[in-house]
Amino acid sequence: MESYDRLLEAITPSSGPSRDVHDPATGELIGTAPVQDVADLERAIDTAVAAQPAWAALADEERRGYLHRAADAIEAAAEPLAELLSREQGKPLNGPNARFEVGACVAWLRATAETPLPVEVVVDDGENYAELHYRPIGVVGAISPWNWPMMIAIWQIAPSLRMGNTVVAKPAETTTLSGLALVAVMNEVLPAGVLNIVAGPGRTVGDALTKSPKVGKIMFTGSTPVGKRIIEASANNVTRLTLELGGNDAGIVLPDVDPAAIAENLFWGAFINTGQTCAALKRLYVHDSVYDEVVAALVEVAKNVPMGVGLDEQNVLGPLQNRGQYEIVDRLVESAKAAGARVVLGGDPDHDAVGNFYPTTIVADIDPHNDLVVEEQFGPALPVIRYSDLDEVVGLANELEVGLGASVWSADRDRAREIAARLQAGTVWINSHGGLHPMVPFGGAKQSGYGREFGVEGLKAVAEPQVVSG
After folding, report:
1. pTM for this entry
2. Which of 327, 325, 308 is nearest to 316 (CA)?
3. Which of 1, 244, 382, 420 could form a Cys-Cys staple with 77, CB 3.0–4.6 A?
4. In the CATH scheme, what is the code of domain 4-245+448-469?
């Protein structure tokens, strides 16, 4: 797929129901996506079931080789993939955005291929001997979201294939082309039937995927309400689940920080992908003694970060991917304004402009229970809450039902780690927020889901443990 036009041609439906896809930055028509149904899904599942025994029969080294070849194929098509991703999702080519995301697909495939998972000898005492093996589950259903549609799909697909499963992927309805293109490129080198994709509505195709008795595992990244529906839908078959659900990550800034030194990391922790990241920093608690300085330093960084159409090389922030998300952010910021919070940057969108652009917004002096704080905004609006009592702010950070990530910001790393141990979150970062590594397990606490992805734990999560004793 050496060109954008060839890539788009490869995924454009020649027949059947379809829908137009528009650029969220410009409104321009960029392509046509298929709208498939449950019958299409059933055919894809049957294809995956038929292909799975031969795939599982390959040596681990052979499957690892296929992952590397898939990474090579993505690398060769990196620029057209990034262009399509930018046009459909809205994220700019540069910065931690479209090119970065395609590069992450390559990196995660290679890391997954190279992660060792040896047989574990669990007992060997002279009288008893037992080994723990990890066998394929069968077919994995991979349901990916619209914010990082390629990278998160790879997080689901790569470990599933490595462990001998076949995959039926369902991309988000608003980033269908990105998902189709990624799979088309990978299928240039993978055996037929190993990786399948069906593009259809969540309420029909997604629901049928989670209910299918032929699917042994569901991996889902998305909202907590949808995750709960998946739990219910899959219960009858006792389907294995990995759920990475909604977050509303808290950051706590201690009084010993240098505001200017942490401002850029704070900004990107909150505003990466224009705030459309599950594990972004979404509510920032700053000690009273440094509050004004931190807010000022954060504004100084934020006001100089360009936002605009993703294909313009200078931009590093883009539009919100869909109008529904734009309206959520707008509602929450207006709620903060109505309650008397101080908007120190942004908060003044042009509702009549083309594209789903919401300006980079920082809201200060806000009540800790305002809607903008306690609801997940999933966009470029950060509430900054003033605190003076550490025990109180730890309680505020922990009081929500979600717990995906959190961060502590301090010049004293040991003190930061003590506070991290008190936070109810799957990951707590020190002096950064949201950074991920393919060997470091990632997942949520409380209603942010369960199960872990990445590294050895991620491989085990898409396999069936089997003890061989004797």
Report:
1. 0.96
2. 308
3. 1
4. 3.40.605.10
